[in-house]
Amino acid sequence: MSASAVAYFLTCISLAIIGFSVHLLLLRSTKQPVYLPLAGCLAAIAVLIAQPVVKALAPGLQVLFLLLALPALYLIPPCFWLYVQGITSSTRWRPGRVHLMHFALSGIGLVIVICALLLPGELRHAILVEGDETALTATSGLVRFTVYGLVITTFLMVLGWVLQAGFYVHAVFRRLHDYRVQLREVFASTEAQEGRWIVWLLLAVGGVWLITAGTLLYDNLVASVQTEAVIRHLVVLIMIWSVAIWGLRQKPGFEELYQSNHETQEVLKLITENKYQRSALNEQLANSIVGKLNHAMEHDRLFLDASLSLPKLAKHISRSAYHISQTLNETLGMNFFDYVNYYRVNAAKEQLQNTDNTVLDIAMDVGFNAKSSFYTAFKKATGVTPNQYRKESRAG
């Protein structure tokens, strides 16, 4: 099988994955609109990679798909940003007019497409598909001026996309950082909500982009480089598969708060602001809450509940989630996540000393959802791994 045939086959698989994923995302979006931007992102990627398939199956659409590549390129960063914004929102995300500004540059790209479609069809095909610039010599000065204007504008738009992508990548990283801080104020286990795959995906895309840009520069300035098309299409397939799988698996981090009262959402709002300035919490009430919290952990052993959250704890001790969060942060000097895991680690230490249970069994028994999160919390608290702690405690 030739390299072009393999590349074509890989592109077909990528498009099939996108088609299936977009279908599922659109079905989900009827209940959770947050999946709409991700569907749009994948659809835009499909337009960008579809050229080999379009050339083979529908050559008459080649010019159209080549032209649509520009607005599609400008759709990907804002769509992915809106998806991240939605899954990290403390309230149910819905599309609105305020989001339209993110698609202004894509709209400009669409205007360029419309202008290009007004040119003679033979000229469009000669320039875009055949790469025959001599076709311009047989046209009027106005047509040549229009074509050169469109080419220059398109070139500037492609350069502008780099700035757009950089802006949204930075916004995504900042959003994820703030989001993880908020998660730890509400949940005792955050592995499923953190969305670490997004960070790894962006780093991978950035790495591929840098390699591609470096290859193009070297190819144009130094010497010709034969980039294997199969490798490029394989990398694209892996990335599309990753976005599809993890995007479908990822749920909004604060989904369980959507139907609750606004008290916990108010707590989240205060995390990045001046906290609790107008709170009525006094020292006596704070000490009372500390006593109830300690009783809930030491006697009721609520920390064993892997799904323990701030609203659950507030309901258990009959106190305001707002005041509990303030007490934890200002009186005890820790967030909800660290407070609960403090008791989990202490319970794990006891089992490591007195039982022969496996580390994984102990982690699950004391309330952790994953071995990795247990190791991280344990080493942060003790400075050693669970296995090292067991050896040292028994040796002493």
UniProtKB/TrEMBL annotation:
InterPro entries, per the entry: Homeodomain-like_sf, HTH_AraC, HTH_AraC-typ_CS, Tscrpt_reg_AraC-type_HTH
Pfam families: HTH_18
The HTH araC/xylS-type domain, residue ranges: 287-392
TM annotation in the entry: 6-27, 34-54, 60-84, 96-119, 147-173, 197-218, 230-248
Keywords: DNA-binding, Membrane, Transcription, Transcription regulation, Transmembrane, Transmembrane helix
Coiled-coil residues: none
GO MF terms, alphabetically ordered: DNA-binding transcription factor activity; sequence-specific DNA binding
Protein name, as recorded: HTH araC/xylS-type domain-containing protein
